Amino acid sequence: MEFDIKSTKKNKIKIEKPKNFKVLMYNDDFTTMEFVVEILSTIFNKSIEDANKIMLEVHNKGIGIAGIYPYDIALTKLTVAMKMASESGFPFKLTVEEE
């Protein structure tokens, strides 16, 4: 059997980078600043310095970006953070939004 390379079609597969999503944190009057820093450092892998900067942004502006990730990772981090907040008795709110 002969194989004619010229007569075969080349299959081109277009691979796109996954879209990124922002995990947004919202300020409230009950969740402590220390808890927000703990969430940012443990779940979102921020340094203590960066976690404090983000926490202050959330505190002063009412909203801040915890991180930017592909959708599945963003949703997982949000879920873990909200579960941790619920178990600690805080009404901490996060959302995922397309970048």
From TrEMBL:
Keywords: Hydrolase, Protease
Domain Adaptor protein ClpS core stretches: 16-95
KW Hydrolase (keyword) present: yes
Gene Ontology MF terms in the entry: peptidase activity
Gene Ontology terms describing biological process: proteolysis
InterPro entries: ClpS, ClpS_core, Ribosomal_bL12_C/ClpS-like
Any single Pfam family the record assigns to this protein: ClpS
Role according to the record: Involved in the modulation of the specificity of the ClpAP-mediated ATP-dependent protein degradation.
Assembly and binders: Binds to the N-terminal domain of the chaperone ClpA.
Family: Belongs to the ClpS family.
Protein's name in the database: ATP-dependent Clp protease adapter protein ClpS
Organism: Sarcina ventriculi (Clostridium ventriculi)
Annotated gene: clpS
